Automatic annotation (TrEMBL):
Organism: Stegastes partitus (bicolor damselfish)
MF terms in GO: cytokine receptor activity
Signal peptide: 1-22
Limits of the Fibronectin type-III domain: 234-336
Keyword flag Ribosomal protein: no
Name the UniProt record assigns to this protein: Interleukin-13 receptor subunit alpha-2-like
UniProt entry tagged with the keyword Transmembrane: yes
Membrane topology classification: Single-pass type I membrane protein
Main location: membrane
Localization in the cell: Membrane
The gene coding this protein: LOC103353304
Length: 403
């Protein structure tokens, strides 16, 4: 890919060089009135220009424009030639927008040689400086779950003011305007992602996402991301696994692909095998079957061993450029051991003890307070025959008698 782009650039440079050599004295002016229009498509901008005024009356000339712009998503210059006077390209609005256009003349007026303008019309647009510093979201990622729905998640920047609200907008070529997230995913009272159901996002199209927001301190810094969802698929977890011992001591694992729209031939599998020896030692092996079989055979199994398997899947490279591994299936084992009794839940025991202790403490405390109040009351009312006073005096007399 990089080599291809490089070659294209080299060829364009050669053409430009050849053109400047063949220039026969005629000078060409660069285009005029270069402008960039933002139709509200989250950085999908319309670049347009006018032909140089000096060429307006040259009817026998064919004019071609050579456009260069800095592709902020690829981090390199992109070039293209056209005879129309506008072009749309994708920019990250949080970065500098740089565009250059040259005029190229051809046809009878130049005796059919191409002449390119020496200078170019240039436009450099700085990103808006609005937004509270360091409040852009982090780690924006989307996952296309089992080709059914897309979940996009982000992490709040730690510097985001506590009371602030984040919004997600998205745009692709089938939409007239940017649209807000249909269903936010909220945790802890804060928006952390967006759930796009069904076919609300198209495959094989650049989708631009923008996370912006507002806070009492002002607008939050925006983040722009452009991606295609067919490369973000994560198959569902495999639910159905069958393990059987063959007469020849082979262990055969078979599974069924998860339900859904991902075709079986698009999945490749990883099988994890855990072998537990009689001494309790566990050895782990992992194997990836690039083939799209739904089975795996362990050549020989000894009776003394316990073999456990689990599988996960991913899209084969013939079906998608990239994909995420599914979650692991639940392990299936031979021999099947009964589920071990759930371990005592240590965290629960102290809670009961604490509650009991707390109740006892409260009871004792209330008794003490009650008693203290009683004493105070009896003292105030000077009732010598109250129980406590009697006990007290009896104690005193006893001590006196002992002494
Ligand atoms: C460029 O824009 C200016 C002002 O808008 C206008 O006067 C001029 O005619 C334009 N030039 C061309 C070639 O259209
Ligand atoms: C183009 O031609 C028109 C009339 O044909 C003339 O009035 C005008 O000045 C010319 N413009 C240029 C830039 O030569
Ligand atoms: C354009 O070219 C044709 C022949 O190619 C010629 O007859 C005509 O006079 C030219 N017109 C102008 C305005 O140069
Ligand atoms: C145009 O080019 C041809 C061959 O490329 C040449 O014979 C002719 O003299 C050139 N005419 C002018 C006006 O430069
Ligand atoms: C999140 O992004 C930061 C920097 O942008 C990076 O250092 C970090 O590794 C990312 N974390 C995850 C979980 O991807
Ligand atoms: C997103 O929506 C789908 C159904 O449209 C649902 O199955 C899934 O659980 C949702 N995800 C979250 C994280 O709520
Ligand atoms: C976020 O972006 C959308 C789309 O550009 C815009 O309509 C909205 O006003 C923005 N919200 C904030 C708080 O900046
Ligand atoms: C394993 O899967 C492949 C391909 O689906 C099939 O040809 C083969 O017969 C299967 N093996 C067994 C033992 O089922």
């Amino acid at each position: 890919m990089a080599i291809k782009t490089c070659l294209t650039h080299l060829m364009l440079l050669l053409i430009i060089w050849k053109e400047s050599l063949t220039c026969n004295g005629l000078t060409v002016d660069p285009p005029e009135n270069l402008t960039v229009l933002d139709p509200g498509h989250l950085g999908h901008l319309q670049i347009s220009w006018s032909p140089p005024g000096s060429l307006i009356n040259m009817t026998n000339c064919s004019i071609v424009y050579h456009l260069e712009y800095f592709n902020t998503y690829r981090n390199s210059w992109s070039m293209t030639r056209m005879n129309v006077r506008s072009y749309t390209a994708q920019f990250d609005l949080m970065k500098d927008i740089k565009v250059r256009v040259y005029t190229i003349l051809d046809g009878p007026c130049t005796n059919n040689t191409m002449i390119q303008s020496r200078s170019y019309a240039e436009l450099i647009q700085k990103p808006p400086s609005t937004g509270v510093m360091d409040t852009e979201v982090q780690n924006f990622t989307c996952v296309y779950h089992n080709k059914e729905h897309v979940e996009c998640m982000w992490r709040r920047n730690p510097n985001t003011p506590a009371i602030s609200k984040q919004n997600l907008y998205f745009w692709h070529k089938k939409l007239d305007q940017a649209v807000e997230c249909p269903k936010y995913m909220v945790s802890g009272g804060v928006r952390r992602g967006c759930n796009f159901t069904g076919t609300s996002l198209p495959e094989f199209a650049n989708i631009i996402f923008c996370v912006n927001g507002s806070s009492p301190e002002g607008p939050l810094k925006q983040t722009f991301v452009s991606l295609q969802i067919q490369n973000l698929m994560k198959p569902a977890t495999t639910k159905k696994l069958h393990l059987q011992t063959c007469p020849d001591k082979k262990l055969q694992l078979q599974w069924e692909r998860p339900n859904g729209k991902i075709p079986g031939h698009c999945l490749e599998w990883e099988v994890e095998h855990n072998q537990e020896g009689p001494d309790g030692k566990i050895s782990k092996t992992q194997s990836v079957t690039r083939e799209t079989n739904f089975n795996f055979t362990l050549p020989s199994a000894h009776n003394s061993e316990r073999n456990c398997f689990r599988v996960r899947s991913k899209l084969h490279k013939y079906c998608a450029d990239k994909s995420f591994w599914s979650d692991w299936s639940r392990p299936t084992c031979d021999p099947e051991k009964e589920e071990m009794a759930p371990e005592p839940q240590w965290s629960v025991v102290p809670v009961y003890i604490y509650i009991a202790a707390a109740i006892i403490a409260v009871l004792v405390l209330s008794l003490c307070v009650g008693a203290a109040l009683q004493v105070k009351k009896s003292r105030q009312e000077k009732k010598p025959d109250s129980l406590l006073t009697t006990l007290f005096t009896r104690n005193l007399t006893l001590t006196a008698a002992e002494a």
